[in-house]
Amino acid sequence: MTAAPRPRTTTRDPQDLARRLTAWLDARLPGARAVGVTVPASNGMSSETLLFDIEHPHPPLRACALRLAADPSAYTVFPSYDLTRQYRTMRLVADRTDLPVPRVLWSEEDPGPLGAPFFVMERAEGRVPPDVMPYTYEGNWLHAASDAERERLEAASVGLLARLHDQVPLTEAEFLTLPGSGDALHRHVESQRAYYAWVVDGLARSPLIEDAFARLAELWPAEPGTPVLNWGDARIGNVVYDGFDPVAVLDWEMAALAPREVDLGWTVYLHRFFQDLTAASGQPGLPGFLRRDRVEARYATLTGHTPRDMDFYTLYAALRHAIVMLRIAYRQVHFGETAVPADPDTLILHHGSLRAMVQGSYWDAVR
User: Fold this and answer.
1) Strand-pair partners of 66
2) How far apart are CA 200 and CA 194, in angstroms?
3) Alpha-carbon gap, residue 361 to 356, rounded angstroms
């Protein structure tokens, strides 16, 4: 992992974006200027983020962040980017829960001003557990924290999911219903089948991913339960913390109606993804942090809902992550940063743990 080059994340010109943003802002708020416009080096490979300050006599300086739909010419990670849907989700969560969601200011559906739809939100100050190098490696604030401090962060982070799932009225989140037929879980899984088909269209297929889909069918829950609003990308790397307390919950582009366990499985597995990479590099990582049994127990205490069928949902999380990893690998191929190997499954960074989950041996080995 340390030797692999970072994949290209954007094809846009930051200076051009800054000029166009200033023009848009002046038309929206006469007399205002966008100052200090930056594109973070850690920008993601889906929606892009711009950071800037609004300089205006009334109100005073305001720190903002802008989420911009991905450039279609940049071999996007996902087939489409509905920024209006994300904006509506954040407004709903802010209005109907006590989660710390950044205040959204404007939504721009016209791609003309910046080349793609976008929305603007207030920027929260704090720190985020790093992805590169992952927080499970030595040399970052979360790894250096005490066990008690990490436990505080873990408890608060699981609490975000509990409150989100309990507080948002289902009737007000119906716009997040995924297309298709059947219950929310069937729709969610079918959306991932469609995503996988899009990723491998004209390219080598992944036998491992297809085996994982087959294993899901064998483990299918007898009773998925009533769906709730799922955050979608439910992981601590999408939370801004003040000390060890959450002050902003970010990245709602994968939000959907689904069983509670879809979010829980993602939270548990995305930590395991980093922990497994760290252990494979010879470091101990954080084996006691965000353990599956602890996350399930905390969630049950907070909500009264005991998580069910978590072997299914953690496998589903690893499968979903594998599809994203495969798309990112094919994106690197597209930009000439790597080549397709004889076994396309090796493009999936966590192919070993995914295969162990398909075989039913993963959790026995890590408990």
Assistant:
1) 50, 120
2) 10
3) 5
